[in-house]
């Protein structure tokens, strides 16, 4: 460990004295990537500097997904291990300078579509105004919400059941998309 520390001190002092790194001699190919240079590899840029296409939904067709190399076979999932990860095609924004191809495939995007329904908001609606069906209206289940409203929450029983279903994640938005937490 001490030897490594001494080596790093020698290198840093050599850079400070000479103004450059003595271990990277003349680069023969100017297009060769210099990891100590100012440019970052394009495929290593954060998402703030990229314009990425939406994930393509292959609707269960794994062959189409493998051929294109992009998108997801299925969307959704509640638990982390149930959610598939897919690739998107990303392009570096025009004002950003980087090294390498400016358009590339980036992996690791969760195959979920947030629906705009917020869990906490729906839970509060369910607890406070569930007897009027506000939780079902919030989830986009209009027909059930009207029935719940007319029956005053199933005389309280339906109201309690919906709170339990919502907390156990068995009451989801009508469009079957993921809720924001």
Description of the molecule:
Helices cover 35% and strands 15% of the residues. The chain is built from 7 helices and 5 strands; from the N terminus they run H-E-H-E-E-E-H-H-H-H-H-E. The model is unreliable at 14-28 (pLDDT under 50).
Question: Which key phrases capture this entry?
Answer:
single chain, 181 residues, three-stranded antiparallel sheet, two-stranded parallel sheet
Topology:
Elements: H1 2-18, E1 50-52, H2 62-68, E2 85-92, E3 103-110, E4 114-118, H3 119-129, H4 134-138, H5 142-150, H6 152-155, H7 157-167, E5 178-180
Parallel strand pairs: 4-5
Antiparallel strand pairs: 1-2, 2-3
Helix pairs in contact: 3-7
In short:
By secondary structure, the chain is α+β, with helices and mostly antiparallel strands.
Shape: elongated
Uncertain runs are 14-28
Q: What is the element string, with H for helices and E for strands?
A: HEHEEEHHHHHE
What distance separates the N and C termini?
A: 45 Å
Average of the residue pLDDT scores: 78
Helix content: 25-40%
Number of helices: 7
Q: Sheet bearing the most strands, described? A: 3 strands, antiparallel
Strands, total number: 5
Strand order of the largest sheet: 1-2-3
Task: Output the structural class.
Answer: alpha+beta
Radius of gyration: 27 Å
């Amino acid at each position: 460990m001490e030897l490594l520390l001494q080596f790093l001190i020698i290198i840093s002092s050599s850079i400070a004295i000479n103004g450059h790194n003595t271990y990277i001699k003349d680069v023969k190919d100017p297009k060769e990537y210099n990891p100590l240079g100012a440019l970052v590899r394009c495929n290593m840029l954060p998402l703030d500097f990229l314009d990425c296409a939406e994930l393509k939904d292959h609707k269960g067709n794994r062959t189409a997904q493998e051929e294109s190399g992009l998108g997801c076979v299925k969307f959704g999932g509640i638990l982390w291990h149930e959610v598939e990860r897919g690739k998107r095609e990303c392009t570096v924004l025009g004002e950003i300078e980087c090294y390498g191809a400016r358009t590339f495939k980036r992996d690791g995007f969760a195959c979920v579509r947030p629906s705009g329904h917020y869990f906490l908001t729906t839970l509060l609606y369910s607890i406070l105004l569930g007897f009027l069906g506000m939780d079902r209206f919030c989830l986009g289940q209009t027909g059930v919400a009207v029935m719940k409203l007319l029956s005053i929450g199933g005389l309280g029983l339906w109201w309690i059941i919906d709170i339990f279903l919502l907390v156990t994640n068995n009451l989801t938005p009508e469009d079957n998309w993921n809720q924001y937490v």
